[in-house]
Amino acid sequence: TKVYNRELSKSKGKAEKDAEEAAKRAANLEDSKSITISEDPSLPAARQAKISGLGELRDQRVKVFGWVHRLRRQGKNLIFLVLRDGTGFLQCVLTDTQCKTYDALLLATESSVAIYGTLTAVPEGKEAPGGHELKADYWELVGGSPAGGVDNLLNTESNPDVMYHNRHMWIRGENMSKVLKVRHATIKAFRDHYYDKDYVEVTPPTLVQCQVEGGSTLFKLNYFGDEAYLTQSSQLYLETCIPAVGNVYCIAQSYRAESSHTRRHLSEFTHIEGELPFITFDDLLDALEDLIVDTAQRIMSSKHGDLVRELNPNFTVPKKPFKRMDYRDAIEYCRENGIRKEDGTTFEFGDDIPEAPERKMTDMIGVPILLCRFPKAMKSFYMQPDKADPIVTESVDCLLPNVGEIIGGSMRIYDEQELAAGFKREGISPENYYWYVDQRKYGTCPHGGYGLGLERYLMWLLNSNNIRENCLYPRTAERCKP
What we know:
This protein is α+β, with helices and mostly antiparallel strands. It is built from 13 helices and 19 strands.
């Protein structure tokens, strides 16, 4: 009974103390409403700048907008905060009355603010982003944030489902922000590569009435009473462009309605595709090597190369030529090195090599591989048979360590009768492909092309564990929000 009464008394005392502190906080907040700050008109006009451009403005008065990334209060008269504006981070210092206003007492991480003050180098021995800090003489709250900021929704301990559900806040984190910037630099590198090689960019439709990679992975929809699909690939449309513009490419979204739950599958992905006329299969392989190596070099020599080095310190640009390996040899390699199918049996000619064995083989070999000449029965209707061995096609997958396949390509059938046989073999009605068949009627030519998954390329570049880390809002079999 004594112990119970003692605990009851302690509990009551704590409740009373909490109530007193809450009342004190409420009183302080109420009092703070009478405290105001204003910009000193006698000071020089503040020059508005992005954080990335502040290096040239030291010892000048500046105005910076941004979001409160981190915040630390030191007593009642000092607030240290790190400001984020998308271009960089800036340490800011609020003092005295600036810390006592109503907005200051409620200031939380992820609040948006405008801070005015003089930019000064940090004292020797101290560190801050950019080597300087902003000593505020005035600040304004633009948009508040609940107490606790983003930690109300997620933190480093959150499980993956919570993190993906709150992806809109997750992308504000430092790592995800870096990934988005590297993604931006990667897309630019591809466009620059194509521009310098005289490719023309086009924008094919994503609402289509034909399949490219098999009907089982089509997203179907009602298109004003007619059946249509979200595109699996823009390849067929790119083929129609080569007589008009020559080498052609697109960067567009593609969709696959397959219920895959692997670390490298998405239902919607960014597809970089190219088509080239009047080439041989060896020309196509050379173009793929050049694409991978040149874009990687461009990224690493850009201003975003340091971000890649931060996220993946061991990355090195691969060297040409890549290892070229026929599908038959890959089957033999798996058999000789104990790489087996999921049921424990050995691989045979005609078997698809799934992700895990493919990646194991790629990692064991340890260099980029151009895996060539897959059996006709495994590949799409449009792939050109190898004249020297007609049961296989002039097809290629580019395999990179840690990821596996990031590119699929082939020479395309350019004979009308062979294409008709391909339609028949796959049970496809050519009715909706009249425009594709016309390419073989009106000035056909040997041609080839490929499709590269941007997110898989980024998995390789950044050594990511999961493809979902490399896109803004991943769409998978389990998730279509936010």
